Each structure stands twice: as structure tokens, then as C-alpha cells.
Amino acid sequence: MTADQILAIIRDELARLAPEVDFDTADRNRLIQQEFDIDSMDFLNFITALHARLGVNVPEADYARVATISGAQAYLLAMVRT
Amino acid sequence: MTRTPIAKRAENAARCNMPSYAEAVANFSWENARKQLDGLPGGGLNIAYEAIDRHVAHGRGGVRALRWLSADGRVVDYTYDDLRRQTNRFANVLRKIGVAKGERVYSLLGRAPELHIAALGALKAGAAFCPMFSAFGPEPIRSRMEIGEARLLVTNAALYRKKVEAWRAELPSLRHVILIDGADDPANGVHDYRRLMAEVSEEGEIAATGPQDFALLHFTSGTTGKPKGVVHVHEAVVAHHITGFYALDLRPGDIFWCTADPGWVTGMSYGVIAPLTNGATLLVDEAEFDADRWRRTLQDQKVNVWYTAPTAIRVLMRAGAEAWKGCDLSALRLLASVGEPLNPEAVEWSVEAFGKPFHDNWWQTETGGIMIANFPSMEVRPGSMGKPLPGIEAAIVERSGDSVRVVDKPMAMGELALRPGWPSMMRAYLHEDARYRKCFVGGWYLTGDLAMRDSDGYFWFVGRADDLIKSAGHLVGPFEVESALMEHPAVAEAAVIGVPDPLGGEIIKAYVVTKTGLAHDEALQRELLGHGRKRLGAAIAPKTIVFRENLPKTRSGKMMRRLLKARELGLPEGDLSTLESDER
Fold first, then answer.
1. Residue B2 confidence (pLDDT)
2. Beta pairing, strands B190-192 & B403-406
3. Count of structural domains, chain A
4. Which residue of B has its CA nearest to A22?
5. Do B291 and A63 touch (CB under 8 A)?
6. Contact between chains at A37 and B135 (C-beta distance less than 8 A)
């Protein structure tokens, strides 16, 4: 799986939660919760959805590493390759 | 109810502010509770004086009153004397700008000390203060500011631009906007907080408010119509103080962490006022919920009393009790929860994780303070909301027309009612006298909550008597959500209910009938989801949207939300005699 494919999945899942936010103009280094105005419950839904799509189980201790789009992309890329 | 009660050790109970519930109830009077406060030196009563200046007058000005943890890791402390001077400045700003006694000062801010300073400063100036939840979208903000005729708004530049600026000119009452991080724009009535605060004195008189003067305005949702502006007066501080003392066991020097947002009543009564009147140190965390950060905060800040909400507790439970094993929580004395009923599993989990149970308690925006609680010295029955506070008479009643009948039989279901007269009871729904009077029947305040009482006097929550939704601890009125959906050109009709959710208690689900000829596809569903979030904000927007050809309505055209809910939950549909057209 490539970095672009992972980004597309992140984009798709965020569009389900916050369809009104333009992914392309969002700041990929800001916190997803702030940039997409989603609450902590929806952030957990986002992580659950990534697990379903990619088979990557993000442990709670790693939530901070997937808190931004760039962070999530890098983290997921590393995990799907191991 | 068959679960094992959690007993308390006698030596621990003896050290509580309330060692014996029975004795406290027997000896309680509101006159004595009032004597724990000073009153204004020149006569009268002011919440901000009791919260701040009283401690300075008693030589405790150097004690830490507030510790702010910024999202980016800074720690900023304020002593009681720091707060006294800052709130004096804000009161002087309001006087200089021309906010009159009783006029409404609103805030739209995250968890930042400027909010505490604005709230208590506004009270010192004699204004009424109304905090709003910063996750609200433009529509809920606007309707709340219209109903309360906001004179002044304190916010930050980002929230102002995103949620207020576009319609500000259409709100004639609003004269001034103060931005805590923004620049002056005098042509548009926008002021820089830092400049204003620097230009005024840090000394000043506190307005000579009386116990019955308007102090706080909190909005709560109604089943129909607009949100209700709940009016509280300065005398409420007597209840804030004594309930904080009994139910939260607050003591001078305690580190107290109330995780509620100050945009809601809990964040004001117990996130600002009660801990300060009790001389504790408020911990204020700017960051959003994060399990790991919360664990570190509880440990590193040596929190003594923690007041949080079921949604957060249930998210913390997901990681299991093991996640807490390495944490040193030896300072933590009391865990309390409010917002919606705490499920018994969560109470039992807390014993496993922390060695002590969460203490659930119950109250409403209208009651202004905690009314029913599990007390630290009293046996906890998991799933129960506890017993009435000293000075509070609660009963289970049945309505019949213009009267009510008290139901004495143990575990019989009825409406939870309170005998009016406690100091923090609402004094009005602003501009809605008829709605206010409807809450009082036969000498009782009717809460709209269904409950039961067991033979030992513990109360057990059953559900709402109406269509209101409890999502992540917030009471959401379906009408407000439906109205926003109806503004979308594709929507002909909408009905909104709460559906059970393991984390949020309930999540908001919308049933939508579209205008004819529109495809019920995912694109439209997402568009409506986005529309709801833009108008209402993430906190009260629907999380699920489904399409229907028709929605169930009564003969008079009233939406039968309870029928949608019964079907969603697979429950009996009940009396359908008034059903005119059914769901398809």
C-alpha cells in the first residue's frame, strides 16, 4: 500500500464524519479534532474505521501519533508495511 | 439493583465534610448555610465576592486559586489575589464601556482563564453572565444571544470570525465584542481585551447586588420551541457553596478538577464558583479529551477531587483498569460524575481501576446545583443517583391534571419532583413566564425526569419524560436540530431522536423526508450531515441521517418522535390512537 492510498482512506473516513470540511485545504499538521471540528467520540470512530479498512489496530498510547493527517499517514504507512 | 453496594470505611467517613448523612440532614438549615459566607461588606450578596475577595479579606490572597494547563503545555497559575485584581479590571472595563446592571455579558470561549475572569468580573460589575459552549455553531449561538439580548460578547478572533461576524449587525442589542487575542476595530465595535484590561485600574468597588438580583443565564433545550434561558440569582452561591462542600467534599487547598466545559451549567456552578467559594484550587485544562493526557494530569497535578462525566469515564474504561496501574493517584480522594446516569458497570470498574468508586449525582440547569448525590461518607449503590442533599426535599410523583400525587411505594416509577425554595432554584425562563409556571404543580417543581426511590431513600434514574436527548452529557432539544435541517432546500420534514450509544449515552439520529424527486443517496446524506454540523456545531448536529417517505404524525400534525424511538429500540409502540399518518 502506498502513502497516497492511505491518504485516500483517511480522506474518505474524515468525509464521513465531517463532510463539510474541505480536505484539500485542511492543514495536515494541525490536530484532526480541531481542523475537522470532531469530538473525541468521533475521533474514536475514526480510529475504529481505520482499523476496519487497513487492519491496523492503533493502541491508545499511540493516539497522539495519529492525531494529525500527516502523523496518521506516516504511522499507518509504517504499520501496514510491518 | 441486585449489584453489591460499595461500603465506606468508618474512619474515612469520619474525615469527610459530611461524616453522617442523617445528622447533616437533621441539623441543616439554609440560614446556617448562608452564614458560611460573608455577604458584601456594605450589605448585599455577590457571587464573585464570595468566590474571590472573601478569601483575600481573610488573609488567603496568596493561595493558588486557578492553575491553567494550556493545550501546548504551558502552566499558568493565579492566586486568589491575582483573580481579585483581574476581575476588578474586567468589571472596570464593563463600567467604562457602559454595560448597565442586569445587562447580559456573554462568552464564547474554550477553557481559558479569560473566561473565569470575564464571568466573575461581570458579576462584580452587576451584569448577568451567560457562558456559551464554544462547539456550538452559528445558529444556536445566535438564538441564545437573541433571547438573552446580549449586550457584550467576550470571545476569540477565530470563533468570532467563524461563528458570529456574519450576522452580528442583525443583533441590535449587541454593542460590543471583546476579543481576548484580537486587535481593535472600533468602527465595528470590536475591542482588544489586553488593551482594555491594561487601561483600567485593578481596584474597584463591587456592585451592591442583592440576593435576588439576576446573576447567571444558562440555556437549556426544550422539546418544542426555542431554547429556554434559565435565570439564576446571586443567592445561588449559597447552594453552590454548600453542595460543593457536601457532595464534592471540597476543602481549602484541594486541587479540584471539573472537566466540564464552562459553556454548560456544570462548568459554571462547579467549574468556577463552588470550588472557589470553598477555597480550593481549580484545575483548568484547555486541551480536548485525551485518555493519556488525563491520566498524566490526575497524577502530576495531584488532583484531590475529580468531577467528570459518564462519556469520558466510558471512554477511559475501554483501555481497561490495567492502563491505570502505573499511575500514582494517591492524592485522589473523591471521584464524582454528572451529566447523565452513570451505568453501574462504570461504578464497579472505577473500584477496580482506582480502588474507589465514582459518585454519581443528579441535577439540572434549572436547579442550579447538585440536588441528589452519592456522598463520600455514604454507601454507594451502583446505578443509583444517591440521596437528596440536606435542605432538599425530593419525591416521586404522578401528575393528574392540575395536581400531583406523591408515590410512596418503593421502586414505583414516577416523575422526580423537588420542593421549591432552595437558593439556586431558577427564578424564570427569560421572557417565557407561561413555560416557567408550567414547571410548578401542586407545590412541587417537576423535573421532567422519570425516576424511582428504593426503600432506603436512594433515587434511581429511569429516563426523560419527554423527547429531549442526552448526548455526551448535553441536553439536546430535537426541535432545534429539526429546524436547522429543515432550512436545507432538500428537506421537507425532519424528526430527531436519541439512540443509545455505548460511549455517548445517546447519539443524535435524524429521519428526513426530502422534497419530491430527490435521490436518497450517500451524497445527499453527507451534504445534510455537513449542513447540520455547519449550522449547529459538532456537539448537537445529527451523527446519523436516514431517509423516509413519510414520518409518523398525530392528527394535529405533531411529530411522534417516541414512536420512531420505540421502533428503533424494538420496544412496544404504545398508544397509537392519535396517530394520523405513519412512517414509511
1. 63
2. unpaired
3. 1
4. B530
5. yes
6. yes
CB contact under 8 A, B323 and A60: yes
User: Are B531 and A20 in contact (CB < 8 Å)?
Assistant: yes
What pLDDT does residue B430 have?
Answer: 97
pLDDT tens per residue, range B242-296: 999 999 999 999 999 999 988 889 999 999 999 999 999 999 999 988 899 999 9
A37 vs B315: CB contact, 8 Å cut-off?
no
Chain A residue with minimal CA distance to B530?
A20
Cell 443517496 belongs to which residue? B521
Are A40 and B318 a contacting pair at CB < 8 A?
no
CA dihedral B361, B364, B370, B376 (to 10 degrees): 10
Q: Which of A18, A41, A63 lies closest to B504 in CB terms?
A: A41
| Chain A nearest CA to B327, separation (Å) | 14
Q: Residue B128 pLDDT > 70, yes or no?
A: yes
Per domain, the residue ranges of chain B are 10-450, 469-581
Closest CA of chain A from B311, distance in Å: 9
Cα-Cα end-to-end distance for chain A: 11
Which residue shows C-alpha cell 391534571? B401
| Minimal C-alpha gap between A29 and chain B (Å) | 14
Question: What's the per-residue H, E or C state across A13-75?
Answer: HHHHHCCCCCHHHCCCCCEHHHHCCCCHHHHHHHHHHHHHHHCCCCCHHHHHHHCEHHHHHHH
Beta bridge partners of B201: none
Q: For testing the chain B interface, which of A13, A20, A29, A63 should be mutated: the one with the most B CBs within 10 Å?
A: A20
pLDDT over threshold 60, residue B1:
no
- Angle among Cα A18, A19, A25 to the nearest 5 degrees reads 90
pTM of the model: 0.86
Could A37 and B533 be called an inter-chain contact, meaning their C-beta atoms sit closer than 8 Å? yes
Closest-CA distance of chain A to residue B8, Å:
33
CB contact under 8 Å between A42 and B538, yes or no, is yes
Closest CA to B310 of B134, B103, B472: B472
| Cα-based torsion angle of the residue sequence B513, B537, B291, B252 in order, rounded to the nearest 10 degrees | -130
> pLDDT 10s digit of each residue in chain A, 82 long?
899 999 999 999 999 999 999 999 999 999 999 899 888 888 999 999 999 999 999 988 899 999 999 999 999 999 987 7
The second-level CATH assignment, the architecture, of B469-581 is: 2-Layer Sandwich (3.30)
Confidence grade of residue B31 (pLDDT, cut at 50, 70, 90): very high
Task: Say if residue B435 is exposed, middle or buried (CB neighbours under 10 Å; 0-12, 13-18, 19+).
Answer: middle
Neighbours of B353 (CB within 10 A): 22
Which residue range(s) make up the domain with A63?
3-18+26-81
Contact A19 B292 (CB under 8 A): no
| Nearest-CA distance A20 → chain B (Å) | 4
Chain B CB contacts of A41 under 8 Å are: 311, 315, 472, 501, 503-504, 507
- The CATH architecture of the domain made up of B10-450 is 3-Layer(aba) Sandwich (3.40)
**Domain CATH number, residue A49:** 1.10.1200.10
Amino acid occupying residue B132: M
Question: All 3 cell numbers of residue B388?
Answer: 437528596
- Give ipTM to 2 decimals: 0.85
